[in-house]
Every structure is written in C-alpha cells, then in structure tokens.
Design a protein that fits this description.
about 160 residues; 6 strands; 3-stranded antiparallel β-sheet; alpha+beta
C-alpha cells in the first residue's frame, strides 16, 4: 500500500456492514437459486413454471446486487475534495464546501453540513463499527479542519 492509502487520505470504508452485506449477498444468490431449482414443476405435481423459477432467481440476484452496492460504500478523500459513495448516490464535495461534521447521539453515520445548508451522509463511517468508527470520524474531522473553509492554507497537510 502506498502512504496515501494508509495515511490521512486513506479511503473510509465500513467494516461490519461490508462483511455482513457481502455474506448475505452470496447467501441470497444461493438460497434463491436453490429454491428456483428445487420447486416442483408441473411434471412433479407442482404449479411452478419456468417463468416463476426465473423470477425467483432474478429476485435473489436483485437482492444480492443491492447488498453488493451496500458493501462497496466508501468515502475517498483527496487534497481537493471528498468523494462519497453511498447506497444510491455518489457525490464529490470540495473541502471548501464542508462547514461542519456531525457524529453524535443516535446518528448511524457521519453527516457533513455544506455551505449551501445541504447535508450529506457519509455512510462509510458507521456507528456500528464502534471505536474504529470514532477514530475514522476523528480522522475525517481533522481533514475538514485542515482543508475546509476555515483552513489557514491549502498546504496544511503537506508532507
């Protein structure tokens, strides 16, 4: 790994959610595939036809695709911006637009407040990860402090 991948600019990724969703994605494909294959068809006295089997297999694949997308959520920081890939959207936010970071109370993940009064969830830092999440939230807060609108100069984190 390069220094950028392990230092302040390492990609933020959830731990627990990624493992669980990856496992359930594989399980979904296996279970729905087995059900689609093992359901009794008209030749075995059942009512399940080929279209029904294909639909069940497709449902399993759709569930797996959604879980895979959840497993790939992340936030990638650079010196210029933070690219946040959440469940349904991907957005790049310049550091100069970030005015505050929240990760307290019952929040399930970090939330960034932007200068246009919009908020954006950073699902890559999840409360379910416990101490790891708190450390990652602190690292993200340090990046906001160093590179955000209140930064003294854009080279504060120069190495």
């Amino acid at each position: 790994m390069s220094e950028q991948e392990t230092g302040a600019f390492a990609t933020f990724r959830p731990r627990r959610g990624r493992v669980v969703s990856s496992g359930f994605a594989a399980l979904s494909v296996i279970v729905f595939g087995l059900i689609a294959v093992l359901l009794p068809g008209p030749d075995a006295g059942g009512q399940w036809r080929l279209g029904d089997r294909i639909f069940l297999a497709a449902v399993g694949l759709a569930i797996a695709a959604l879980l895979w997308r959840y497993a790939t959520i992340r936030a990638t920081p650079t010196r210029e911006a933070l690219t946040v890939r959440n469940l349904l959207t991907t957005r790049t936010v310049p550091w100069q637009s970030v005015v505050d970071l929240r990760f307290a109370g019952g929040d399930p993940w970090v939330t960034l407040e932007l200068d246009d009064t919009e908020t954006i969830a950073v699902m890559a830092v999840q409360k379910a990860d416990g101490d790891y999440a708190r450390a990652e939230a602190s690292r993200l807060a340090a990046l906001v402090q160093a590179l955000g609108p209140s930064a003294a100069s854009p080279d504060v984190t120069a190495e």
